[in-house]
Design brief:
Shape: elongated
Order of helices and strands: HH
């Protein structure tokens, strides 16, 4: 169970970082924000925090 917790945390963290990088690149190169990537970045960051704070029994 502990391995699953860390696996999910790492996956959600990587997904969040990649989404934020895509938003940054789109904004810096094309001068607009791609909102689906921004929303997915915030949702995956929130999921990573929830998984990290989940207490195992």
């Amino acid at each position: 169970m502990k391995i699953l917790k860390w696996f999910l945390f790492v996956i959600f963290s990587i997904l969040s970082i990649v989404s934020f990088v895509v938003v940054y690149l789109m904004h810096s190169n094309l001068s607009f924000i791609d909102y689906p990537y921004l929303i997915s970045a915030f949702v995956s960051a929130l999921a990573a925090v929830v998984v990290y704070n989940y207490k195992l029994k």
